[in-house]
Amino acid sequence: MYSIALCDDDAKEFEQVEFFLKKYQNMKPMLDYKLEWFISAETLLERVKEKCIPDLLLLDIFMDGKTGIEAAKEMRKWGCNMPIVFLTASTEYALNAYEVDAIQYLVKPLNQERFFHAIDTAIGQIKQKKENQIVIKVAGGLRQLQPNDIVYCESQKNYQILYLAAEDYKIRMTAGNLWEIMEAFPQFGRCGRSYILNMNHIVSVEREEIVMDNGSTIYIPRNKAAEFKKKYFSYYFDQRNEFGGGVI
Asked: Which positions ≥6 away from 215 have C-beta within 8 Å?
C-alpha cells in the first residue's frame, strides 16, 4: 500500500484530489493507497517528526503559517526523500519548488491529465526506492532505510546497532540474520563477527583499523584483516572501473 499525504487548507482541493485518485485507481486497479489530509504545514511536520513519512506528498504552497516550500525544505533537511508534487494557484514559485527536487508543479485548477502524469512519475520513483530499501523493526513500528544511509553495523550480543550519518538504531536481531539481509547489497562487507561495514563510507584502511566517514574507527581482528582488505579493494577497484577514474 502506498501512503499519500495531501497538505492543503482548502477542503475543495482535498475533494478534487480524492476524486482524481479514485479515477486513477480505476485505471490501475492494482494500485492500493491510503490518503491522509493535513490542513497546515505545521500539522504535516508534526506527523513526519513521528516517523510517519508518506510515500508521496501533494503539497500546497500558500497556506496560513508556514508555506509548502518552507515545509518541504525542512523535511529535506531531515532526510525525507519522498517525491513531492506542488499544487498551487500561481506559477510564481516554480523555481523554488525545484530547489527541493519536486517532481511536478501543478497549477490549480488541477488538470486530470497532468495530475495522472505526476502520479505515474511518483509511483515509478517509489517502486524503484522500495526495491532497494532495507526495512527494520524499531520501537514504534517499521523504518525504511536506503542502504547507503547506513555507515556500519555493530553487533552487541542479541542486538545490532545500525549507525547512520544522523542517528542510530538498536534492533533485536542476531548478527547472522542481519547479514542475510545486508549481503544482498554489494557495498556491504562483513568484518569479523561484530561489524558489517558500508564500503562506500570507508575513508581509509590501515593495517588493523578502518576509518569511516562519520569519524568512527573500526579495529580489525588480526585473523580477519587480510580477508576484509581483499574484499574492500576488489569492491573499490570495481567501482572505479565502472564509473571511471584513475588511481594515483
From this structure: none
At 174, which amino acid appears?
A: T
* Nearest CA-CA partner of 10 in 83, 103, 110, 91: 110
**5 beta partners:** 36, 57
Q: Is the pTM of this model over 0.85?
A: no
Residue 6: its H or E element: strand 2-7
- More confident call, 243 vs 123: 123
User: How many C-alpha atoms does 110 have within 13 Å on its Cβ side?
Assistant: 26
What was the pLDDT predicted at 119?
95
Number of residues that this document lists for the chain: 248
- Tell me which long-range contacts 219-225 makes (C-beta under 8 A, separation of at least 24): 220/191, 220/192, 221/191, 221/192, 224/191, 224/192
Identify whether the C-beta of residue 70 lies closer than 8 Å to the C-beta of residue 61: no
